[in-house]
Amino acid sequence: MTIPTATYRIQFRNGMTFDRAAALVPYMKRLGISHLYASPIFTATRESTHGYDVTDANEIEPAIGGREGFDRMANTLKEAGLGLILDIVPNHMAASLENAWWRDVVEHGEKSRYAHHFDINWSRPLTLPFLGDTFEVALENGDITVKADPETGKPAFAYYETCYPLNPETWQGREQEILALTDKAAIAELHERQSWRLMSWRDAPTDLSYRRFFEITGLVGVRVEDPAVFDDSHRLILELVHSGAVDGLRVDHVDGLADPKGYLERLRQEAGDDCYITVEKILGEGEHLPEDWPISGTTGYEFIASLANALVDDEKLTALRKAYEESRGRTLDITAELSSAKLLMAGRNFAGEFNTLLTLALSIGEKQGDATDEKEIRAALRSLLVAFPVYRTYGTAEGMPPADLELLHKIVRKVKRSNNAPDSDALDFIVTILTGDVSAESASDATNFRTRFQQLTGPLMAKSVEDTLFFRQNMALALNEVGAEPVPRAFPQDLFHAEMKTRLERQPDALSGTSTHDTKRGEDARARLYTLTEAPQQWAKCVERWGQLNQPKVVMLEDGPAPKPATEWMLFQALAGVWPPDLQPDDAEGLQALETRFHDYVEKALREAKDRTDWGDSNDAYETAVLDYARHLLSADNQEFLRDFTQSLQPFIRAGLVNSLTQTVIKLTAPGVPDIYQGSEALNFSLVDPDNRREPDYDELEKMLDAQDVDFNSEAAWMNGQLKQHTIATVLRFRQQQPNLFRKGDYLPLSAVGKFADKILAYARTEGDKTLIVIAPHLVFDMLHGTLARPHIERWLDTDIVLPEHLTDRRYRDLLSGEEMQLADRIDLESVDCCSPLILVSE
C-alpha cells in the first residue's frame, strides 16, 4: 500500500470539473502533494452542490465531465506521479425520483428489485414527505393532480413539477380513466391504493417509514450490509480501484452503517490490500478507533481537537468564561445545556426514530412476558440515549465487543446515579436487549433494536452538539468545532504531546486535516479566535464598547431584545474570525462582499441554535431584527464602529497569523498525513457551509507559489498567506524525500527552559540517524508589538530547548531559512524571532 505523504482536497461541482482539476495537477505537484483527494464524483441530484446526494453510484457525474473527463484527469495525475483518493458514500442515497432505484421503489413498492436496497419499514406504506402541507390540504388547494408523466407517459400524481409514478396495478387497463380523474374524492381514493403516501415535510421527524441521514429526509439509508446491495452500489467504485485509477477511498459517515466493521472488512477484501482507506469518524475524548478495523485511520477531526491543547491559553480560559457569563447574564452550565439539547433532539427532531426503538422494546417485552411499563421504558430509553458520551457502539448479531459492553455498563451506572434517574428495572431491561440477553424468539428483534439504537446515537450526538449546542454556547467559537468535546475541559500542552504519541501508535497513516467542507470555520479563522483566550479582558472590553456603539439597532420584541447580549458576543466573535486581514473600514465593496457571506452565516446560526427561531418554525420578527443588526455592523455608514473594530482587531489578527503558521507546521510534521483543503495552503477565514465550499482563486495561488522573491521578513507575506503557502511547499517536498521519518519516526516532546518556556512548543521526530526538530511559538499575543515584519524587538531571551543525549553534538539545517547550526546539548533561542518557527533537520 502506498501511503500518501500529503493530500489535497478538491470540491467538485459548482464549476469545478475534472478538466479544471487536471489543469491544477502541476500546481499540486509543485506544492508537494502526493494525492488528490476528491469529493464525491458520482451522479447526484441535478442541483447538488456537494455530491453526497448520490442518485447513481455506478455513473460518474456528467456535469463535471463524466467518465471521459474522469479518465483524462486520472491519466494526468498518473503521468505526474500523483495518486487519487475518492470520497464514497455507502450510507445513503438521494430519496429523489432522479434516483432510478428510488423511482423503481416508489413505482413498484415492495415488489421492486430495489425495495430492500434501502432501509425501509415495509409494514406500512412508504412515506414521501415532500409536500408543503398535508396531502388533504394540498389536494383541496388543487396542488395535486393526475396526469401523464412527461418523461414516461405513465399516469402519475403531479405536485408542481414533480410526478410521482402510480403503482402499475392501480392504473393498468384503466389508463384513460385514471388520467381523466378530477374528482378530489376519487384522487384521494387512488392515493390510498398506492404503496406510498404523500405527506408534509413537517411530519417527517415523527412519521417516517425509512431511515434517513441525520435529519435530511431527502437522503435515504442504504442497506450495504446486504451483500447484494454492496455489490450493486460498489460496482464502479471497485472497478476504478482495480483499474489503478484510484489509489484510496474515504468512507463518508461510517457510523451510519448497520455494521461498520463488517462493511470495512468487505470493502478491504474487495478493494485489496493496496487500497488506502480512511473513514469519517468522530472520536470522543479518550476514544480510539477499533483496532480490528482494516483501515489506515480517520480523516482527522480528532487532530483538530488536539491542536486546541497547543494553542489555547489554559490559564486565562476561566477569565474568558467569566466575561462571557457576565455578558449573557447567567452562569454557563454546559452539561445541563448539552442534556437539554439532546432531550430536544430525541423528543422532537428524532421522535420517529425514538418511537421505533420504543415500539421494538415493548414488543420484545411482550414476547418474553416481561412486565414492561411504557412510560418507564420510554424514560429509561431516553435517559440512556441522552447519556451516551460517544457516537456509537459496534454491537452485531453476535453481541457487543467487550470494550463496548464495558462502556455500556459504565453509562448505565452513571444514569442510575443521576438526578431524576429512570426506573432501574426498565433501564436493565433496555440493557438486556442491547446485550442480546433475550429469548431465541426475540433475538432477531433485539438485533434490530441494537442496530437502530447504534445508528441513532451518532446523529443524536451530532445534531445536539455540533448543530445545536455549538450555536447556543458561544464563549469561544474556535472550540465549537466538529470533533471537539462539548463540555468544559482543560487544555494542557502535555495533553497535546500525549495525543500525538497516541496518534503515532494507533493511526500514523490517518489524515491530519485542519479545514474540511464540514468544519464550522476555516483553520485560520479558528487560529485567530484561539487568541481570545490570551486576552480575555481586552476582548470583553471590545465587545462591551462595540455593543454600546450599535445599541440603537437593538430591537425590543415581546420575547426580549434582538439581539441579546449573548448573541452580540457571538456576532462580534464570528465577524472577528472571518474578517479579511486587509479589509479597511472605507472599502465599501469589500464590506458588501463580506456582508453577503455573513448574512447567510447569521441566519444559519440563529436557526441551528433552536432558541428563538428554527428551520421548521422560523420567528420572522426575531430573525429580521438580528439580521438587520448584522447588516448594520458591515454598513459603510457605520464608520465609528468599523474603525474601532478594525483597529481593535489588529493584535488578534497578528497573533492569529502566528497561530496559523504554528498550526500548519504541526500538521506538516506531527504524526499523520497532512490534508490540505482547497485554498487552505494560503489563508482560510471561511464560515460554516456553504461558505467553506467556495472555490479559491487558483490563479492567484499559482502566482504566489511561482514567486521567486518571497520576503518572509515582510508583513505582506504574512497577511496574504504567501508565508504559509511556501512553508507548506517546503516541508511537503522534504516529506517526500523522507517518508519513513514522518510515518514511522518516534515522537519526542522537548522541554523548553527559561524566561519564555511557556511560549514554546517543541518536539522531535526521529528515525534511525535522521532527526527533525520542531520549535514553534504559541501564546505570543502580548509580544508582537504592532507588526509581524521582522526583525521583532522580542526574542526568546534566556530561553533554551534541552536536547536529549542522542540528539546532541550534531549539525542541523533550518528547512525554512536554510541556516545551518552546530548544536551541543541545547538550542539557545536568544537570536530567534518570537514569531518564527524553526524546523531543524539533521545533516
From TrEMBL:
It comes from the Bacteria. The gene is treY. GO terms for biological process: alpha-glucan catabolic process; trehalose biosynthetic process. Residues 12-735 form the Glycosyl hydrolase family 13 catalytic domain. SMART domains: Aamy. This is Putative maltooligosyl trehalose synthase. It comes from Duffyella gerundensis. The keyword DNA repair does not apply. It is an enzyme of class 5 (isomerase).
